[in-house]
Amino acid sequence: MSLKSKFVSVFASAMVLGSVAIVASAQTDAPAVKDGTEKAGKLGRKGFGRHGGFGKGMRGGNRAGLRGLRGIELTEAQKAQIKQIHEANRPDPALSEELKTIRAARRSGGTITDDQKARMRTLRGQMQAKRESVRQQVLAVLTPEQRQQLETRKVEMQKKREEMRQLRKQRRQAAPSATDSTNDN
Question: From 149's CA, which of 61, 72, 122, 136 has a CA 20 to 30 Å away?
């Protein structure tokens, strides 16, 4: 074997080993996500969205309806009571399915009968009454200071939503004028 061929084979081997080492070092391990306690990198996160879930049932994880009480310090006993309230007042799946069926019939372009319309109103009323009942039960668990914190957060969130609404409105108004100027050319 000539010196030139030895040199080429050693050089090729070094290149292969170097590229394998670069590829191996470039791969990062995404941190394991357990109980939602560890922050995950973009690729290590499960599901979609801010809360890691991709459906209503996944949002909030095991907090059982405590999403609206975020930022309020609750004792473990309060958390347990609120969880119990939510579990005791779970919606009836049969009623939810009936409402979905009527909605689907209406969305698909079909007509719904007056009886179905009345049933929808009744179901919505029942659901609204149940939500209000749960809300009152949860508020009864909170201390006066916690209720005040909740009211303050509610006002802040309304203000934030209004600001976002105004910002979207401004963007919509600005967007057509920007595209019109590019089309004039």
Answer: 61
